[in-house]
Amino acid sequence: MTIDATNVKPTVAPTVPGNSDASRDVASYLHPYTNLVTHEKTGPHIITGGHGIYVTDDYGRDLIEGMAGLWCTSLGFDEKRLVDAATKQLNTLPYYHTFASKSTNPAIDLAEKLLEIVPVPMSKVFFANSGSEATDSAVKMVWYYHNAIGQPEKKKIISRKKGYHGVTVASASMTGLPGNHKLFDLPIDRILHTETPHYWREAQPGEEEEDFATRLAEQLEDLIQAEGPETVGAFIAEPIMGAGGVLVPPRTYFEKIQEVLKRYDVLFIADEVICGFGRTGRMFATETFRLKPDMITIAKQLSSAYQPISALFINDKIYQAVKKGSDEIGVFGHGFTYSGHPVAAAVALETIKVYEDDGIIDHVRDVMSPFQKRLKALNKFEHIGETRGRGLIGAFELVADKCAKTPFEPYGAAGKAVAAICLEHGVILRALGDTVAFCPPLIITEEQIHDMFDKVEAALTEWHSSL
Hints:
By secondary structure, the protein is of the alpha/beta class. The protein contains 16 helices and 15 strands. The strands form 3 sheets. The chain has a 7-stranded mixed β-sheet with strand order 4-10-9-8-7-5-6, sandwiched between helices.
């Protein structure tokens, strides 16, 4: 079935000439992840305020933010404790760096707290400003580590097709999405990709879920052997793949993958940028899926997105090698002007305190069952091929033919159309191709979950009737 992409309603009125906010935006701002030709025609969708799980746009509409911004605003849009933490720190020490052994109390306190709550043994925390910087730093750490221990050939990093790890040169190379590679001359060398763990889409006819996981582990092992185990330094994976379509790993997948990594002495990096801090019903998805990584990257819900901050955990094996290397050459030559920024660190520390004081993880466990039940109920629609999720993250995939799993043409038009109609019904969701994703703030109530899904079902009914 073909979708008429030209028939998709714009989310906002066409840009008007003059000095409107919309026209000034089009004239001055280069938007990320945006079709720039379309943007010049439709203009921006301007958000002017927020409260709880809602944001307000310049039309005065209160909209359910069903994606928590970009998978990140876990505590909603008006958590006063975070605002107060930022204000207090701005009035105390608005900035200082952490180069050359300098430090600040918020950075120290946050690093100590993170090491206290991380579910696997870790030695140190390195701070950055975004998930992309954290995963990029992990790449450099892999290379530095293997040089320091005398294995200079063991540098290749294996990611997965449809994985998402950021947009810097190195992190975008690990990202396994064509749109992040085309015209950017990516991926760079030493970055490889193995298969996507999407059972519904990728399993062979009659293949059981655990057999599918076994096959993927065997494919990873074949790749390592083909490249030469002495050249493969690390494997990176999101516990649940986010921007690639909210792909939940099949049963026994990580158990089998980790056996392969251990066999060939390959470091394991868990990218918890989306999943960390309660999204799966535990503080870290590393707990949910029983992972044993050597490094963990975190961002987004670390500060409920109130300040830009991310972090990279490294275990003691890596730290000892990095320490030795820094002594030999005189410096660990990596870091950012804003690494451990005191305001961002203070807000992140307060965010973790809110999680603990308000019982946010327990709340997620209470509401994730009705969330997943309502998500699964969307399978009743003729053109929803699969629903999938865990905790308070989920998605549905649109198909032209449910039995044959045939996609719509052109790819992405159906997802864009459904997301636009959901917006008209009062819910912001994100189209990832023809998969439409949910990732609401963790504070969402059961009543609000039902309201959100009622609106989405009304939107899907409208869309189906238009086909």
